[in-house]
Amino acid sequence: MPPNVEPSPEDVDNESIDEPTILVATVRAQLALVDSFRRWMHEDLKDEWKKYGDIFSTVSSRLDSYRQWLLDAEQNPTSAVPQPVPWGVRARVQPGSSGLTILVTGTRPNDQFEIFAKDKMEVEYLLSDRYFGCISKMCQGFSQAEKDIATMLQIAQETEQEQSKLSQAPELTTQTHIRLLKEYNDIKDIGQQLIGLVAENKGVRIGTLYESGQYGVETED
Asked: How many whole angstroms from its chain centre is CA 10?
């Protein structure tokens, strides 16, 4: 079933859908993306930490907490997991700055960093998908993915609670599966967008990342 298509009850095979399997696959795909993004920040941008270390550090810290959250979810998908905290990472030209000052907001409410570019060309580079534009989009993607995974965890909790009482009625089981599949399709779309950014920064075709299966999405998906 292609992404962005919400399944109808008739499309759902109750015996073939396994909530823990879908959750674990989703979480592992996100872990792979987080690790790839962290490597890019720490390896490809290692020479830039002297200039932008404060910004990179706050993003790196948020990535670490997200990674731990994912590991906890992977180990016990149906346990109580706190609601995710907003990421809030954005990069834009500071209004009224003659177009040469970039304002980057961090992962905490009061995080604001100013970057003074030497010319318009540097501004375009810093805001591009090769630099802070990529960091901002990746963080936005992780933020939405975190919300979707939290919803999937909630669905799994509700399913487990129902199953611990009495067997669910067939129509209730079907509706639960539909909700889970919808969240799964949403987060897979986000993952594909993030993989596109990873491919661009690696300088490779996006198809090579699909073929590797490293990010939990293969060519036929």
From this structure: 30
